[in-house]
Amino acid sequence: MAIAVASTSNAGFGASPRTVTKPSGLAVGDLLVAVIACSGPTINLPSNWNSRVSDPHTNGNLGLAIFDKVADASDVAASDFSFTHGVQASVLLMRVTGAPQMSSPYDVSASAEEDTAGGSVAITPITPQQNNSLLVLAKGHTSTSDGTSSTFSGYAINGTNPTWSEQIDLSADTGSRRTSYGVATAIMTTAAEIDTITIDESGVEACVSAIVVYRPMVSAAVTVSHLSPNTAFHAFTVQAGTTMTIAPLSVNTSAHNASASAQSRRWTNLDKSSTITPTNLDKS
Questions:
Q1: How far lies 16's CA from each of 28, 43, 79, 240, 252, in Å?
Q2: I want to staple 134 with a disulfide (CB 3.0 to 4.6 A). Which of 25, 46, 214, 283 is the partner?
Q3: For residue 125, what pLDDT is reported?
Q4: Are 158 and 226 in contact, with CB atoms under 8 Å apart?
Q5: Average pLDDT value for the chain
Q6: Do the strands 218-222 and 242-246 form a parallel or antiparallel pair, or are they unpaired?
Q7: Longest C-alpha distance within the chain, in Å?
């Protein structure tokens, strides 16, 4: 199964806590990814979630976080999820299918801040470990002077730019300022180093950009071509994030003539030779 964003839900900007409806179709083993933009630096990590990005802007007026977890039975039974934070925040919650069912299905992440309107920002270089990985690209923006809303476009990375699907583009008055954020996802078919991320936005002042890479689940086929007698079977070691399927095993055995060396009684002939078949019946 290819990794993909299967469904999303979101809660608009508002006071803490923000409660967001469970994405439709959630099943045990799905990956939940939450992107949170806050008009302040504080975004709290919920219990049993993992933090991939938590980057408050140095001016204290903006926070951007990306959390994730693998859904269990209690998540499937829940109707919504809550996130606590300072000031006002918005939450985008994505259901991702085709990710490894492990505690850390993410691969690499990076973030950076900037203080002027712009598109491209340099990040600490990261390299996905597998082809066909899922990229989550986000940008948060706050305006403290003119209250201008931002809209987002032009999602890109250096090198071969994949096709992006925007998951949210939202702006709202959050007290004395206006906070906006945009999130897009894409499949990076060929793994390569990422050192620049681009999200164009129409506003000005403080921005935080972030990218998180999630590895896909990989299937591997194993063929056993020969079995030797008295073969000891050992457990296969599989890289995290890999599903190994072993086809039904058939063993072709070649029948060998087993010469049973019976301890047959041997007879002595008159010429001092020996044989199993007696030649002289009076010999014992």
A1: 28, 10, 18, 36, 66
A2: 214
A3: 95
A4: no
A5: 82
A6: parallel
A7: 127
Q: How far apart are CA 4 and CA 139, in angstroms?
A: 20
Q: Give me the mean pLDDT over the 266-270 stretch.
A: 59
| Least confident segment among 122-136, 147-161, 240-254 | 240-254
C-alpha 83/C-alpha 87 separation (Å) is: 12
Three-class SS state of 87: coil
Characterise 119 by phi-psi region: left (phi > 0), alpha (psi -120 to 50), beta (else).
Answer: alpha
Amino acid at the residue 174: T
The continuous run of DSSP H or E covering 145 comes out as none
Q: Where are the beta strands (DSSP E) in 148-188?
A: 152-157, 165-174, 177-188
Strands lying side by side in the sheet with 120-126: 120-126, 194-201, 152-157
Q: Which two tokens stand for residue 198?
A: 């681009």
Three-class secondary structure of residue 7 per DSSP: strand
* Helix spans in the chain (H): 73-77
Residue 144, CA distances (Å) to 24, 129, 161, 181 in order:
36, 40, 33, 15
**193-229: pLDDT as tens digits:** 999 999 988 766 678 999 999 999 876 555 555 555 5
| Contact status, residue 113 vs residue 186, Cβ threshold 8 Å | no
Of 222, 216, 228, 34, the C-alpha closest to 138 is: 34
Please list, residue by residue across 209-240, b when 16 or more beta carbons sit within 10 angstroms of its beta carbon and e when fewer do: bbbbbbbbbeeeeeeeeeeeeeeeeeeeeeee
Count of positions (residues) in the chain: 284
The answer to whether 19 touches 177, Cβ cutoff 8 Å, is no
Give percent helix, percent strand, percent coil of the chain, each to the nearest 5. Answer: 0, 50, 50
CB count within 10 Å of CB 241 equals: 19
